[in-house]
Amino acid sequence: xxxxxxxxxxxxDGGRGVKRQREHRRGxxxxxxxxxxxxxxxxxxxxxxxxxxxxxxxxxxxxxxxATRVRLTPDLRxxxxxxxxxxxxVGDPEPILRGLDAAGPxxxxxxxxxxxxxxxxxxxxxxxxxxDETRRIASLLRDAKRPAESEHGVGGEDGIGxEHGVGGEDxxGGEDxxx
Length: 179
Description:
Blueprint: H1 18-55, E1 65-72, E2 78-85, H2 94-102, H3 104-114, E3 122-127, H4 130-151
Parallel strand pairs: 2-3
Antiparallel strand pairs: 1-2
Helix pairs in contact: 1-3
């Protein structure tokens, strides 16, 4: 049978071992660092992909295509890339996504050269319809505003003037009197 344990010796650090303090510090700072690193690497992936799309890709399907967002998994093995075309009208985004998938190995090779990572992330491309949705909503708001202006009888191009002042009130504030 073993005898009673002797209490640990008190150290200059208040009884906690140095190794234990290091682990505690590492745990608290390491918890915040991976999120920032993932965001930083995602930004770098987006910058490199946008540069490659503009400068190095000659596929006509990918003309004027930009990377709008990149989301990386915490282990940096998978990158989800949202893209959009700056062309006036894009009917079906499928040919663009197929072209990006076909250029995927080229993108990964170039990313491996441009990023200092142990593993180059796998790329998955998605169509970003947020820009289309934003344009649609802006158009609806613009159209809704036009009939409201013509209903109130606001004169002039700047929306001020006409027979009535701003808000449809008489300019002189009184009743109409014949003189």
